[in-house]
Amino acid sequence: MDPSSSNLNTSSSVTRIRSKLSVVLPGKIYFPGDSEYDSSVGSYFFRTARQTPTCILKPNSAGEVQAIVNVLSSDPGVKFAIRSGGHTPNPHQSNVVDGVTIDLRSLNEIARVGGNSDVLSVGTGAKWGDVYDYLEKAGRAAVGSRESSVGVGGFITGGGLSFFAPELGFASDNVVNMEIVTPRGILCANANEHVDLFRAVRGGQGNFGIITRFDIKTHERNTFWGGGILYPESTEDAQLQAWSDLKNGKYDPRAAVVQSYLFFGAQKSFMISNNMVYLQEAEHPVGLAGFENIQPQVEACPRASPTSRLNEFSSAVYVTTTVKFSPSVCKRINSVWRERTLLISDSPNITSVLTYQQFPLQNKGIPNSLGLHADDELHKDHLIVILSIYWHEIDDSERITKVAKDTMDRMEAVAAGENALHTFKYINYAAYWQQPARSYGEAANEAAREVSAKYDPQGVFRKQAVGFKFQ
Ligand SMILES: Cc1cc2nc3c(=O)[nH]c(=O)nc-3n(C[C@H](O)[C@H](O)[C@H](O)COP(=O)(O)OP(=O)(O)OC[C@H]3O[C@@H](n4cnc5c(N)ncnc54)[C@H](O)[C@@H]3O)c2cc1C
């Protein structure tokens, strides 16, 4: 269920706690009309997420976040949203109408942990670009977003897919410690302390508390091979063959590819793009040669991505699924996408993107909450599928969202028909009507219920925080 549709009668409750919030956070509570408020609302990446909360809080420290949580838990009628980078396109997940939005962007400190260059402490409000700038000087890299404007908090708590995924798994599996504000206080969660919480929050977003800081592993990296290539849609069969060759060859954890089928409404043209990275210096690495050699090519550009071509201030919908790769299933999914895209191709400047991403290497360390097992080896033959549609005409929102939902339903039916549909839905690309946390399976949901009962017995995060929920 979209939590924004719950029946909490919030506006009067927010009014009730307003004075309490002003006391614990003097000068950092903003209302409609304040320039800080307008700037916070306007800074969400997508227009669809620019909701207008009753007030916005901008804490500067974990202690201030704790004070906010204490006030919010004193009134179960108040809805609230946790916001880091503000990149979700979903309307009511890091922002909320008729409630309180906690804007964490001031918690953006980046520092080495105890002078150790292997671990970096990153505030939840930092952007990945800030992390990369910091690490570049030290010749190191981190498992983070492929787009530098994405926020650290939402990305990691949702899992985090990167070019390192085939080698190092989800970003959340590369975290060694987290500082979390829970109704039980400010806690550290790691392999030794609050291990159950450490497991639950990696994939669980804001279900258990507000993560204020992540200590992440860094990796020595020098030069990568990589780039983006754009091809005409007539190369589809060759693209599917290149996937087959990559999947059927010896597993190469350094070869990362993101493949997108693109429709550019402005030109009314269908294209295909591959964004590739080889995680060490190499001339034409074998695993990626199949993609690199496909002809004809429209344009070769360094590290271009479909979203870098967009006006970032558009409305957007993302919806996702997971399939076992085979050329036939992907070809049928592509056909569904092409056919359904034509239904909305008249919307001015619309862009529709069907993306295939490699499933990350399965976690062999401290378990996360994603419900995946190392033995499943999904990284060998599964792909995460994302349909993302971007548009400008507000009046088109309803019909485009409807088409997105219908398209995904049809793509999943095709995959199910070929016995290729996996239940896992990646939370960071899920649409608000999907149930990604539930897709982790019953055992993960049972564990989540226990962790919630232990650290948040009153259910502050389960009931009052908006966002995807466990069962
Ligand atoms: C241009 C673009 C590029 C992207 N690239 C990638 C990519 O390469 N790989 C990938 O995996 N995903 C990618 N994404 C998806 C992205 O990972 C998700 O949208 C992610 O949730 C964004 O994190 P954020 O902090 O910016 O989001 P927000 O919108 O601030 O938050 C998203 C969710 O996380 C919760 N949350 C945020 N911070 C916290 C916290 N501190 N504690 C608890 N809960 C929290 C929020 O409540 C909300 O439910 C991309 C998205 C965009 C728009």
TrEMBL record:
It comes from Paraconiothyrium brasiliense. Keywords: FAD, Flavoprotein, Oxidoreductase. This is FAD-binding PCMH-type domain-containing protein. The keyword Flavoprotein applies. PANTHER family: BINDING OXIDOREDUCTASE, PUTATIVE (AFU_ORTHOLOGUE AFUA_1G17690)-RELATED (PTHR42973), FAD-BINDING PCMH-TYPE DOMAIN-CONTAINING PROTEIN (PTHR42973:SF28). Residues 49-221 form the FAD-binding PCMH-type domain. Belongs to the oxygen-dependent FAD-linked oxidoreductase family. Signal peptide: none annotated.
